[in-house]
Amino acid sequence: MAAYTPETKCSFCPGSKCCTYVTQRIPGPRSKRDFEELLWQVSHRGVEVYKDDDGWFLLFDSPCEHLQADGRCGIYARRPFVCREYSNDYCEFDAPPEEGFELYFRSYEELLAYCRRRFRHWPV
Ligand code: SF4
Ligand code: SF4
Predict the structure, then answer these.
(1) What is the pTM (predicted TM-score) of this model?
(2) Of 6, 55, 56, 116, which is the most buried if we count CB atoms within 10 A?
(3) Is residue 90 helix, strand or coil?
(4) Which residue among 85, 91, 94, 98 has the greatest number of ligand 1 atoms within 8 angstroms of its CB, and so is best to mutate?
(5) pLDDT average, residue stretch 85-106
């Protein structure tokens, strides 16, 4: 087996975690209507919501179609810029991203419980 170096680190990463989801920044929800929309979105399989230091995001748990069975990128030489600029210095292999989340909703029930705590009168 290859020595563990920054160049070989990804080959030690089971499932190539960083290639198995996408995130999309969203405006921070404020109103009940905003949260109603989030409840609809998080109700879909593989859709999660989190908030960290950079704001609110949707997380789509969906592996990249270019991820090969051996963990390599099938379009490495022409992979998108987002992939090129991503550093493995300190990544999901080192610590789960949710450690840095202020809020994390993986299901309708989790977000609904938060809405009930946040708004005195829920639902609308
Ligand atoms: S950058 Fe990190 S999470 Fe992504 S494949 Fe490499 S070690 Fe795994
Ligand atoms: S294009 Fe390649 S590097 Fe980028 S997410 Fe897909 S498999 Fe990973």
Answers:
(1) 0.91
(2) 56
(3) coil
(4) 91
(5) 94
